[in-house]
Q: What sequence folds into this?
């Protein structure tokens, strides 16, 4: 079952138009993060970041916060587009493991398999929420992994999420 939002001849979504301007978003712009690939169906996105004085740490390698920033919004935005308006999607948590100093231009790739999106939908037919884990590798120019990022994304049917709103409000009061 493919998302009804993605027909081969469908017009470009507002989210895709927005994402094409994301390189102007201050957290990406300030770190020098560029989107180098964005497929029209939002199933594949690549980003890169050159080492500059704005994203260099005191040791002369990429600042860890900038390495994380290059992985932050993409899977959440891809899932929002592919699950559609009947679902709520939020970043829930993340962890980053630094493997080696990053120097030069570093890259990360994001791929969203349609089968995986269908599995999330199927799970949400019986479960209140799904929290898929996405693992992203940030690689240096030689292809060596310099950092691994785990992203947990919260997904729920909008009707179920809204029905649980009073219970969430009671916990936070």
A:
């Amino acid at each position: 079952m493919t998302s009804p939002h993605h027909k081969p001849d469908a017009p470009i979504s507002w989210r895709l138009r927005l994402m094409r301007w994301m390189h102007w978003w201050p957290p990406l712009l300030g770190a020098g993060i560029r989107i180098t690939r964005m497929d029209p169906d939002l199933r594949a996105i690549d980003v890169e970041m050159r080492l500059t004085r704005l994203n260099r740490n005191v040791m002369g390698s990429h600042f860890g916060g900038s390495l994380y920033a290059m992985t932050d919004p993409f899977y959440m935005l891809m899932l929002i587009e592919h699950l559609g308006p009947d679902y709520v999607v939020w970043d829930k948590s993340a962890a980053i493991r630094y493997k080696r100093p990053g120097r030069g231009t570093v890259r990360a790739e994001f791929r969203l398999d349609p089968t995986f999106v269908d599995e999330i939908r199927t799970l949400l037919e019986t479960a209140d929420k799904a929290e898929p884990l996405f693992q992203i590798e940030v690689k240096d120019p030689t292809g060596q992994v310099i950092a691994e990022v785990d992203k947990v994304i919260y997904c729920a049917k909008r009707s179920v999420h809204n029905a649980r709103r009073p219970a969430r409000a009671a916990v936070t009061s």
Notes: The chain has one domain: 14-172.
